[in-house]
Amino acid sequence: MILWSQAKCLVRFKDCVLKDNLKSTSFIFKNPITDLEIYQSNTQDLPCKIGVIGHRKTEFLNALAMKYIAVPPLSRTYPLMAELKEYDQIQYLNFKESSGLDKVYLSARYESYAYKGKLEMSDDVNSVKNYIVGSNNYNSNQSSVSEAEVNRVIDLFNLSHLRDKWVNSLSNGQLRRARIAKSVLHKPKLLIIDDPFLGLDPVQTQLVSNSLNDVVDEFNMAIVLGLRFQDKVPEWIGHLTEVDESGVLFNGPREEVALKVSKNIKETEIPQDRKLNLLKISNSDLSDNDTPHVEFNNASVIYKDVPVLANFNWQIPRGTSWRILGENGTGKTTILSLITADHPQSWRSVLSVEGVLRKTGSGVTFFDVNNKIGISSPELHSLVPSTKTMNEIIKNGLVKDIGNSNFQFSGERYELPNNKIEALFQKPFVVDVLEQHGNTPFHSLSITLQKVTLFLRALIKDPELIILDEAFSCMDNVDLLKACHGVLRDEFPDSTILSIGHIEWELPDYDYVIKLVGDDNRSYQLFKAVAKD
């Protein structure tokens, strides 16, 4: 067992209060952080693999990453890092921004396959490998890493088969794995990740968890993960810290803190999955006398001789709610991009909307399509101008004929379209959110409030089709999550809703499920969701 006096302390808080800036008269937490330390070590006897839970976990991670001002100045110190005097010894990944990635329009992911060959992509400065090692940033200060280390990390995070792809062409889950791998290859002394499993399917969640444990041991780094109460804490986490508005409530060995947390936590903060039976059906079971809202008829989408969709048939009756289920990379977002016309092959007679085949020369434009669609997705999230306020982003959804990914136009002069939407924006939870945060820049909002912002933007036009791609992932305010679900259930019963999410209770109510399988033999199945007795 390593003695604390012999161990290398990375971070130390001692009677520390935190301020957002020097002029601020308020503190981040009500109480000082009296005594907290993080060590560099490969043993769980010391706090070196830490999970942070609680409603103010992000603020605590910000404090670890030097985002706030410590009062007095020496109440927060970094002993080993100060001794080494090396650059970039802390890596903080929070998925609220997209540093190192190109800002591109949504169709670019799919258009890249049309003109970039394998050789060109492997040499591209923005390939997955070059993004991870920092070669796509000419001002990169990343410390040198060996080719063996690069290959090891790429393999650990299941990115070997993607290393030569353009990084912006990755699926949401693949891109998150690449961003974690990039942070790891900096070989920091302290790696901080908020919501590390955001957008990952269960298989990839376990893979990333195991890989993080391996690399922090190999590179001798400490790691701190920001987790929700509802998240499963990785088995290798040795210490837990719970924080709320007052500051650090509990801090210590995992078993001790977990017991205290379980006694304090409200039942409402641990949502339960719905109890559903999935009954297998066919498209013929969905047919009635009405024309489907959306219909795929023998649709095929192929990238470089690799089928993503093959002979794909799916009828979506108007007013139905669907869950699109599948592991990362199975084509979920591709299907949605075909519907929204962001995918170039959307115009190749692969689908019909309200009985009208979508094809070039049909008279229907990209803007016509998107005027009737409201969407919230990780792709949109990454395109939001960080300085625009919550109010500006939401009202931008009222502007017609600009598509769903254009945030540059102001919707201030537009009126709400009808009484239903006026009633929506008079709901207490919406009024409360807008009064408190309406003028806050997007980058300053929590992940939960960023999600609410894009959700309200999707609804403000009263769309006929609502697409929710990971729209509620990692929301840590369960009451707010339930309020959003209630809006869809009560105010939009006639809208067609398509949802993607890997955690069942994060999804709104749904009537049907389409399950995609992404192995060598791509396939899909349709189910009707029926509540268990």
Written account of the structure:
Residues 11-270 form the ABC transporter domain. Keywords: ATP-binding, Hydrolase, Nucleotide-binding. This is p-loop containing nucleoside triphosphate hydrolase protein. It holds the Pfam family ABC_tran. It comes from Candida tenuis (strain ATCC 10573 / BCRC 21748 / CBS 615 / JCM 9827 / NBRC 10315 / NRRL Y-1498 / VKM Y-70). With 533 residues, the protein is α/β, with parallel strands linked by helices. It has 3 domains: 1-89 and 188-267, 3-Layer(aba) Sandwich (Rossmann fold); 100-186, no CATH class; 276-531, 3-Layer(aba) Sandwich (Rossmann fold). The chain is 30% helix and 24% strand. The chain has 18 helices and 21 strands. The protein has helices at 57-64, 79-84, 108-115, 118-123, 128-133, 147-156, 172-185, 202-218, 254-264, 283-286, 332-339, 366-371, 378-383, 390-396, 419-424, 428-437, 447-459, 478-491, and strands at residues 8-19, 33-40, 49-53, 69-71, 76-77, 90-93, 190-194, 222-226, 239-244, 247-253, 276-281, 294-303, 306-316, 321-325, 348-353, 356-359, 373-376, 465-469, 496-500, 512-517, 523-531. The strands form 4 sheets. The chain has a 7-stranded mixed beta sheet, with helices on both faces. Strand 9 (239-244) and strand 10 (247-253) form a beta hairpin. The radius of gyration is 24 Å and the shape is globular. The termini are far apart. Mean pLDDT is 86; it is low at 1-6.
